[in-house]
Design a protein that fits this description.
This protein folds into 3 domains: about 1-125, Acyl-CoA dehydrogenase/oxidase, N-terminal domain (Butyryl-Coa Dehydrogenase, subunit A, domain 1), CATH 1.10.540; about 130-235, Butyryl-CoA Dehydrogenase, subunit A, domain 2; about 250-380, Up-down Bundle (Butyryl-CoA Dehydrogenase, subunit A, domain 3), CATH 1.20.140. The protein contains 14 helices and 8 strands. It has helices at about 1-5, 15, 20-30, 35-40, 45-55, 75-85, 90-110, 110-120, 240-250, 260-270, 275-305, 310-335, 345-355, 370-380, and strands spanning about 130, 145-150, 155-160, 170-180, 190-195, 200-210, 215-225, 230. Helix 9 (about 240-250) runs parallel beside helix 12 (about 310-335).
Amino acid sequence: MSIAQFSYSRIPPQAERLRADVRAFLKEAMADYPAVRRADSWMGFDAGFSRRLGAQRWVGMALPRSHGGGEASPFARYVVIEELLAAGAPVSAHWIADRQSGPLILRFGTERQKDRHLPPICRGEQYFCIGMSEPGSGSDLASIKTRARRDGSGWVLSGQKVWTTNAHKSHYMIALARTADQTASRHEGLSQFIVDLQAPGVTIRPIKDLTGSEHFNEVFFDDVRLGPDSLIGTEGQGWEQVTAELAFERSGPERFLSSMALLHTLVDAVGPQPDALQAKEIGRLVARLHALRNMSLAVTAQLASGGNPAWAASCVKDLGTGFEQELPEIAQLLTDLAPTTQGGTNHARVLAQLVQMAPSFSLRGGTREILRGIIARGLGLR
C-alpha cells in the first residue's frame, strides 16, 4: 500500500513546457519585488496580481473551459503553482478558491452554483475561505458545533469558525455545519454550505500573528439566513466531501515551499565558498526538498487519475511543514547574521519573518496530531 501511494511520477513534457512562460511572466511582474515580501509566499495578498494571473488563464487551470477554466492537467497546474511559490509570488487572494473551492464546486455543486462562481474564480476576481476549524475542535472536524437548520426552503446558520485564512478579504466561505444530531456516527449529519460573507449576521474579526499581519480570523454566524441554493453537494455527506477537499489542501507544493525565500537568501548569504558545515546542511535541505517534491508529484498523479489520496497527502503535509519549520533554525546555525525586522540584510529580514511565521505552518491545514492519526489508519495501525 505505501509503495503504491508514492510511486515515482514525472511531469509530462507538455506540462513542463509551461515553465518557461511562467518564469518570463514572473521576471517582469515581480522585477522590483523585495525579498521580505517574497517571504510571505502563498500568504501574500494582491488582488491585482491575481487578476493578471487570471488573464493568463493560470487561475482555475484544471476547471472546464465552459466555466472559464483551461481544462489543464493537474501536472500543468503543478508547474505553474511551483514556479509561483518558488518566486514568492503574492497568490493569497485567489489561492483557496483555485486550490479547493473551485474544484469542490465543480465536483459537488449544482449547475447554478457552477455558473455563478467558477467563471469569476477563473478570472481571479472571486475569493473564498474555508470554514472548517472551530474553537474547541481544531482539526477534529467531526466535533464541530456550528449548526444549520432548515427554515422554509432555506437554512439558518449559527456558530463560530476560527483560524479562517483571509475571511476578512474573501467574498464567500464554504462552511461545514452539522445538519443532523441523531446519527449513528459523529462523522454523519454534516453538510457544506456556500456562505456570502456580506450577509446579515456574519461578523469577522481578524487575528494578528507574531509578525503583526492579519491572515487568520474568527467568524461568527448569528442566525445567518441562507438560500435554498446554498447547500453544496448532498445533505449529510459533508464529511466525505471535506475529506476529498483536504487532499487538495494537504498535498501541494505549498506544503514545503513556504520557506523558499529563506533558502534563497541563505544560499546568497553563505556565498560560493561554504565551509564544510554549511555545504553539508544546505545539501541536506536541498535533498529533503527534492524528496518532498517527488512525494507531492506522486499525490498529484493520484489526483489526476481520480483518486482520493488522503493518507499520502497527510504524509506530504506533515513532512513538508516539518521541513519548513526546521529551515529557520538551521539557517540561524549557519551564519552569524541575527534576524531583524529593522534594517539589516535581506537575509536577516527574511529570517526574522520566517522565524515568526513558522509556528503556524503545522497548524494550518491540520495539526500534526490529526495528520499522524490519518497516517496511522492508512498504515493499518489504528
